[in-house]
Task: structure prediction
Amino acid sequence: MGKKSKSITRGEFVRLALYSTAGVCVGSMIARGNLKDEPIGDLSHDLENFDWAFIVDTTRCIGCGACVRACGIENRVPDGYFRTWIERYEIDKNENIRVDSPDGGKHSFKQNQMQDKQVVKGFFVPKLCNHCRNSSCTQVCPVGATYHSPDGVVLVDRKHCMGCGYCVQACPYGCRYISYDIGTADKCTFCYHRIHRGLPTACVQACPRRARIYGNLKDPHNPVSAVLHARRYSILKPEMATNPKCYYIGLDLEVI
Amino acid sequence: MKNNSHVKRIFALLIIAGIMFFVIRQLLVPDTFGVLGHYRAASLKDILNLEQIYQSKDVCAQCHDDIYNIHEKDVHYDVQCENCHGPGNIHVANIAAFLKQNHLEPTKSGKYSNEVLKAVPNKLVQMPKEYTLEGCLYCHRKLESRPHDFAQIDPKEHFKALHVTDISIRCVECHSPHEPLYLLDPVSEARIHPAILECEYCHKTRPEKSHKDVKNHPVIFECEDCHTAIVQDFKKREHAFMQCTQCHLYHPENESSGRIYKNGNKQFCLLCHEKKPFKDQHKGPHGLPQIDVSKHLEKMPGIMGKDAQFIQKSKTACLECHYNFIHDSSLIKTLREQKQWAKKVNL
Result:
């Protein structure tokens, strides 16, 4: 066998165990000192009046990238990561499909991808977190750092997240990333800080074509229900049974 | 049992470990964890208290109301200021800090006078700008994937048509971004024409698709069908290669509702006819007539019998003289009197 390991007596073992327990206790106290929760007051009662939902109208999107830029500015998204991005789909006569999203569509699209072939159908699909009702990302979090808020938005607790990345792998839509500047998981929050101040989300505000609509499903006069009752809509990856709250108008079968 | 001290010790250790577990758990789990669910409820507050960076055009309008008023009336009304000018919070914060530092007070209406605002150094005011050629092409580059009812250009073709030789120029050299002059696609034109306001005029039931979703809708009518005399006259003149709708546009929001809004103002004519350094100077009077506006207008007061300032400001300065390059103005008057178009569509 290999090198003989140094043996310790039972007394030493118990002492060591006690020391380490004491260490954990002190560490906890320090950690506790750093994280003091402010009282939440009547927050949950207030939030129960809301149930946020989102619509993306792919028939109106022109792929200008204003939403991606606005989101990046508002939420300080690091370069190369996206909370929302635009995919371009081009389909030719022979049903060949090409999909691209250069730099998330942040600086729009420079030229047609299919130079040689004739495009019969082309469209842009902006994507963002679907804020699923049965989200897989919240189920896998080992520390409860990502959750459904009482008003139906999937959020990340930056102070609690340890950046293990399980949620990034679990999301079937690829909407999460580990932000290298804060070291935790991050994602679209529906601009939670804006919508509760009565402002539209940054991407909704920036969209020059009104291809993005947000609304509170508990408000009988909200624009989301009005559009969903008038137009034909779909959701992304219904087979995943995540029950998303982001609806797509004019979604093609090719979009995944 | 003779000697059970080891059992006692084990139980003692287990009890201590149990107590320690609860103490440590109490210390480690945040106060609000589990109040609303399996998460730290206070994190909702953290997120709610985040700073708002992206402002809206209404915020910009508080100071720049002159530009805002123009912008609101034209087709770019849905484009936020910050889409082209970049985030405004630093711009506002810089100016506010400067004004506070120098103890400058607003006027009674709560606004700062122009003199005060001019004192702010340019460095603090400047915002990143995206209105280079590329900035406009973010939205307006011709792409197969773009909805076909959206205004798009291929810069190469556009420059060729206007004899532009220097392709590094910016769109804003000719087009004002706050007041762009807009051309509609044929289907949308027909729909907003006063004679056909609703799809139901032709469709018996309401169509599923909006007029904006219909790419290849057949042409409903030609302008010539009703405005026969004027179109035939137009076709004899210099601008015959152009479409009526390149200048005329029905504007639903316009107060002159029911009429064709005219783009016949000076700026519109100058989009093509202004002499610019980046255009091919040799395309003289025969290719694309180009004029130097200020020099051209200097000569006018004597000819027109009006004062120079009026002509400089007049929006329809070009048409005052050059109406016959387009169509005979007397034809319009007779047409209006007879209400020929109204009879034809049974209104």
